[in-house]
User: What shape does this take?
Amino acid sequence: MNKNEKTTPQFAICINNSGYPASLELHKIYRVLPDDEAAEDGDLRVIDESGEDYLYPADYFIVMKVPQNVERALLQTL
Assistant: This one.
């Protein structure tokens, strides 16, 4: 993905934090960053509890669409 392209923010809820209890909280919504190469490997690039983006197994999350007002609220807290 071209870094200059504007994308709709994506969010995912954590459904498994095995091996990452300090980095991921169960049932918390996380911001997902586009990363086509990671997706090909079955991973998601997520902004975790450290505030940095890291790769995690995609099956640890459910990617979800959120209403625009929820998206605005989530982006304000990030």
